[in-house]
Design the sequence.
């Protein structure tokens, strides 16, 4: 600052001297002095730190990507973003411990199935976002209709930013293309899980492998084994409470016990049959180990939400070409699907407005979104067809050797801003939007369970569900002799109380919303 003052003083003295010697030039010198003053005293921009904590693999080049994002964010919104990704297997437990301890955080990934959105809202871990969305993220707010935002509301307030992706869940299969051709799978003829069994048997015998991939994280979720509620026509109501569902087209919206459903028993028997036949592993690997085994050729097929372009994502993850087939008909649009992945802002955040500005960038700025999703141009990807937004890997690099390849676009923001990985994906975003817009709305679309009145019962019931529902659904223990016992244990844990309270809430919601 002293240097600036001295420089200005010297300029002024020189200006006076010149003015005295050559009056006609005085005005010109004074104008130049004013220009220097304007530039030198510009106020610096304050930069604040904002953390983003999320699950997933930990790529080597996270620091490089973070720096590249901050070159934009520092200048545009005055934020220094700190990326903190935690391994999948540890994320849920670590976040629950941190939040319970009241540790400071800013943006966190939350969902019905990990770092529970409902629990975080109930426990006061997240702040309401309604005002911040309007004030600091107008583009994000305008990117979805109000009816979609309603899916994230709890007691009338929004606590999580919905990541735009596919909202209905087209559960189906993606088999390896090479093995589909080798063992003559007619994927067009596959309409349900059972239709793929002859091919699975051929792969099992011909390749000497257990053909169907499932990892432990997926197997131990609230929807185990082949039980995918939408596939069987049910709305899960709350993905974090596996013991209850509702028929998606039920005009009366009757809440029922999952373990007592014939459809759940059917799925459980089928999973047990697939294990007995050697199609499914009896003891699934954890995700990282299982993914590595898939890349090594030890699996032939996985089943998942078969959204448009999922076969290319699977190829990127595992290195093989895949086919894709949706087996869910009709597609169901439910609240759980619309809120399958969200980003929230912690109640302990010191910079909530800046955190919301970051979420605005994640969802409306393709440069920021693709840096986080894809990495740095020329380092982690190159243009293959810039006009169609198709990228590829640099020469000598692939999905398994890339130093930045999280493969979790759906976690970060608006997936419809993502660059395509393959020319075959072009148009997938439009196809996905068509699915979103044409899926059959559940009669409970927009309803969210308020867990607060039944949080004790939910904890107790979830523990019993993990003891009975999960192993039954996975086919690990037989239905006979265990389902009846599980039903009784669930009732003792408070399932009837949960069903009654959720029924009361949904009936009240229906009246208030003229359903």
Sequence:
């Amino acid at each position: 600052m002293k240097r600036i003052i001295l420089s200005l003083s010297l300029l002024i003295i020189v200006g006076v001297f010149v003015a005295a010697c050559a009056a006609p030039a005085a005005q010109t010198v004074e104008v130049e002095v004013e220009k220097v003053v304007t530039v030198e005293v510009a106020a610096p921009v304050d930069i604040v730190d904002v953390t983003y904590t999320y699950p997933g693999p930990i790529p080597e080049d996270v620091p490089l990507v973070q720096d590249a994002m901050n070159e934009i964010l520092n200048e545009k919104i005055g934020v220094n973003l700190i990326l903190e990704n935690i391994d999948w297997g540890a994320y849920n437990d670590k976040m629950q411990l941190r939040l319970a301890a009241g540790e400071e955080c800013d943006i966190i990934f939350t969902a019905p199935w990990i770092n529970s959105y409902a629990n975080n809202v109930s426990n006061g871990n997240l702040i309401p976002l309604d005002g911040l969305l309007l004030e600091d993220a107008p583009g994000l707010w305008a990117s979805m209709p109000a009816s979609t935002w309603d899916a994230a509301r709890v007691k009338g307030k929004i606590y999580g930013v919905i990541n735009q992706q596919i909202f209905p869940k087209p559960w189906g299969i993606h088999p390896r293309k090479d093995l589909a051709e080798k063992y003559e799978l007619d994927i067009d003829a596959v309409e349900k899980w059972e239709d793929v069994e002859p091919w699975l048997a051929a792969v099992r015998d011909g390749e000497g492998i257990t053909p169907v991939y499932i990892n432990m994280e997926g197997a131990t979720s609230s929807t185990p084994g082949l039980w995918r509620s939408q596939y069987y026509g049910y709305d899960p109501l709350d993905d974090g409470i596996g013991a209850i569902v509702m028929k998606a087209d039920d005009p009366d919206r009757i809440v029922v016990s999952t373990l007592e459903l014939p459809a759940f028993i059917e799925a459980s028997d089928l999973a047990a049959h697939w294990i007995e036949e050697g199609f499914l592993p009896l003891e699934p690997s954890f995700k990282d180990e299982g993914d590595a085994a898939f890349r090594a050729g030890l699996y032939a097929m996985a089943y998942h939400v078969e959204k448009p372009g999922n076969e290319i994502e699977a190829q990127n993850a595992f290195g093989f070409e895949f086919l894709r087939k949706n087996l869910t008909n009709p597609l169901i649009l439910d609240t759980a699907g619309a809120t399958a992945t969200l980003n929230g802002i912690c109640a302990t955040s010191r910079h909530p407005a800046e955190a919301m500005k970051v979420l605005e960038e994640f969802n409306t700025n393709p440069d920021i979104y693709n840096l986080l999703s894809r990495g740095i141009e020329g380092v982690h990807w190159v243009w293959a067809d810039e006009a169609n937004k198709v990228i590829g890997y640099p020469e000598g690099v692939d999905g398994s050797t890339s130093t930045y390849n999280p493969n979790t676009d759906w976690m970060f923001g608006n997936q419809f801003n993502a660059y395509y990985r393959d020319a075959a994906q072009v148009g997938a975003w439009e196809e996905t939007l068509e699915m979103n817009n044409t899926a059959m709305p559940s009669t409970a679309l927009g309803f969210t369970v308020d867990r607060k009145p039944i949080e004790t019962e939910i904890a107790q019931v979830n523990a019993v569900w993990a003891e009975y529902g999960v192993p039954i659904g996975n086919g690990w223990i037989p239905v006979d002799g265990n389902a009846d016992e599980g039903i009784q244990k669930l009732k003792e844990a408070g399932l009837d109380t949960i069903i009654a309270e959720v029924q009361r809430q949904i009936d009240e919601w229906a009246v208030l919303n003229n359903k």
